[in-house]
Amino acid sequence: MNAPQDTTSSDFIFNGEANESWNFTDHKEIASRGFNVLFSATHKGCRYLLKGLKPEYRNAEIYQLQMLKEYRLGKSLKHEHICQTYSIAEDAIAGRCIVMEYVEGCNLKQWLEQKPAAALRHKVFGEILSALDYCHKKQITHCDIKPSNIMVTSSGNDVKLIDFGLSDNDNYLLLKQAGGTKGYMAPEQEQSKPTTDARTDIYALGCLMGELFPHRYFLLRRRCRQTDPRRRPQSVMEVKREYTLWRIMPLLLAGVAVAAVALALGIQHPTAPAEKIVTTQVVVHDTIPVIQEATDTEKVATDQTPSYGDLEQALWRGLEEIYRTETEHCLSTETYSYDIESELRRRCTMVVNNLMATAPSQFRVMIQKDAAAFETKLNATYRESLYECRLAIAKRNR
Question: Which of 82-96, 99-113, 176-190 shows the lowest per-residue confidence on average (mean pLDDT)?
Fold first, then answer.
């Protein structure tokens, strides 16, 4: 007597949802937790993922409603980086189930174990941001962002966001329960009556960044994981803007360093009279072109020659800027894995060569001597930073 009633109740809940006739073969069960059962199966030569309920839960109305909610939310999402939901189907093995896109690949945790290059990790993170931003614009909060719910395809390393079982939006007044995964769950999700929104997913994003970029974006990661949602970035686009800014920061610092060196090399004696200037290119170490300012004549009168004090000051500023920016770049950039001392010597040699190319011949020996003394002094000044750089580089090169 009970079986027909359960069947009728279930049919009523899913009435009108199953629009297509499916005939699945070649079922292969996929390990799963909780009340769901997963199979991959074939229909008309294509592989699909079937997500149903374990037999002991199939007749419980609460789980049927939960499945219907997940189906409707998934069906409303059409995005290249979100696993596509197709239909509700009746299957002889999986029972009533959600028919979904089958993703050939591995989850984010397994993918990271392969130690992908930094460029690929940035690509994947950008696609996660794109998928989440789309969900939030559709007023849907995922509520369970974690590595196992992010698939990376074997072909192309493309992201597919999966598992909207805990997802929510304002259209659903029921089925709003505390849930999530420890380590990625925002504090507000642990309340008996959780209030979730885009900032809930942003908390989990901060946790994910720690796994994708363990040596970078410390301030942004901390902002995303603030206990108070009001202190987090308020949207995925805000996270993306800050992430982009921090990503290009080393390039900005390098640009500032180049500009400072160029300014230092352009210093002239304050009493030098104005004269016609001819610009000629001098190619120096590291194939970096430097603009040299010279008079029309090969020789410069003694009273027009820059004082050695000016040249000495330019040399110090140039070398000090190299030490400062290069150590900052080493500590903030995950891909910096070469020998810090060798890189400093190379860049300092470039500065010295540039300065000697523009200095009067009588000052060149003095420039070389002062450069050696300045580098010794800078090594002492930046001793602690250089030690930190060596530790960071050794860790990255393991």
Answer: 176-190
Q: What's the whole-model pTM score? A: 0.62
pLDDT single digits (tens) 142-160:
999 999 999 999 998 999 9
> Region 106-129: what's the mean pLDDT?
95
Task: Let me know: does 71 contact 120? Beta carbons within 8 Å.
Answer: no
9-101 carries CATH number 3.40.50.410? no
User: Which residues, in sequence order, are bridge partners of residue 52?
Assistant: 37, 97
H helix or E strand, kind and range, residue 350: helix 340-358
CATH assignment, 105-234: 1.10.510.10
DSSP letter string, 40-83: EEEETTEEEEEEEE-GGGTT-HHHHHHHHHHHHHHHT---TTB-
DSSP symbol at 265:
H
Average pLDDT, the chain: 82
In angstroms, the CA 264 to CA 44 distance is 71
Residue 34: how many other CB atoms lie within 10 Å: 10
Find residue 38's DSSP bridge partners: 30, 51
Name the DSSP class of 168.
B
pLDDT of residue 266: 65
Let me know if 92 is exposed, middle or buried by CB neighbors in 10 A (0-12, 13-18, 19+): exposed
Query: Are 265 and 314 spatial neighbours (Cβ–Cβ below 8 Å)?
Result: yes
- The answer to whether 136 touches 236, Cβ cutoff 8 Å, is yes
Where are the domains positioned within the chain? Answer: 9-101, 105-234, 249-271+279-396
One-letter-per-residue 3-state SS of 102-125:
CCCEEEHHHHHCCCCCHHHHHHHH
